[in-house]
Amino acid sequence: MPEDQRPAALLVEAIAIANDRLAELARMIRKKPSMTSATSRIDIRNYASGLCVEMFVNSEHSSGNTITWWIEMKWKETNWEISGQVLIDSDEGQDAVRKTDRRVCESLSATTEALSAVTNQVIAWSDVADVSDPVSLLKAR
Description:
Strand content: 35-45%
Mean pLDDT: 92
Radius of gyration: 16 Å
Number of domains: 1
Oligomer: single chain
Number of helices: 3
Number of strands: 6
Low-confidence stretches: none
Shape: elongated
């Protein structure tokens, strides 16, 4: 591999690993008795505000609420901003019940490390699927 291609390959590899881990989270969530479905997805968008990589697991809870485990990478001219959250849809809209700190990454190694850490944290929040009434988490905030 040409040396100038190595950074791009390392970044794509880190994104692929995070995406694979979210796909495994979706498989695990589908097995939970409280969940009726779960799918993982990755979108790479070029919004007016800039490049964005969105990785997520959408799931349907037996209560009828949608729970989403979300990781977002935004390109901000000179760095990546990476964050994660767990969102619950309710009658009032979509609200975060868990959020990571937003990480600003000014190097490739910082970006891959932050993506791995945020992925670990979002996956650790799989317990949200075990709650009998996900909307109760919104009220407890």
